[in-house]
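mind reviewing these tokens:
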Amino acid sequence: MLALVPDRNQSTSLRRALAVLDHVRERPGLSLTQLAEAAGLPKSTVLRLTAPLLETKLLERDRRTGAYRLGHGTLRLGQAYLATLDLRAVAAEESHRLMSEVRETVHLVVYDPPHVVYIDKVENDANVRMASRIGSRGPVHSTAVGKAILAWQPDDAVAELTLEPRTKHTIIDHDRLRAELAHIRRRGYAVDDRENEPEVRCVAAPIFNHNDAVAAAISVSGLTSRITAARVRELGPLVAGAAARISRKLGSPNR
């Protein structure tokens, strides 16, 4: 008679496999040895955990070098997820309108504590391209989109944050961040003044859903040579206006 694998062992294996997948996501091209070291597991265990991931195309392994990278199965999962996310479709018209109006890159993000996840991007091809990628993550405390969302979260969400400095301008004091979030609530939009990248400014506003809870944020980003401190004051109301129109389309009762 075959012995059943205890549920706890299955759960542990699943968590380890997901951790391995995440290590490859963060550092594509890891060798078996590097992946084992990153995961803190024996190479034999990593081989066992990656076998079903390779079979389902969630992982791929280079036949020549043995390096691991994400497989096209992850793309199918991502596309399936995004297909159910009506926010992108609802926001698309306003995102393109905003980009056309300000001629800068527009981002749409959702909240995945303690990060924001970029789910759409509309670029002005005439400008320098932003390094952000759809599906990538950013910190909430140093990005305008993150602060625009964080301003409407419970105080516990702020208290639990690790405020790592991204540039010399990053806010790394919790009390100062709380004061900044209060200012964002009064003003209606957030500003990243070279806090996440040294040469980039960003202006963002929150998007509210049908429950009038913050569901996402939209932003305008560009080099400081184009988005000056004076231009921030011009962009703020435009971004906030786009966010309000998207919020209304999502059914927000108070926007």
User: Anything to note?
Assistant: The domain at 7-76 is CATH 1.10.10.10 (Arc Repressor Mutant, subunit A). Strands lie at 59-61, 68-70, 105-112, 115-122, 137-139, 190-193, 200-208, 214-223. Confidence is low (pLDDT under 50) at residues 1-5. The longest strand covers residues 214-223.
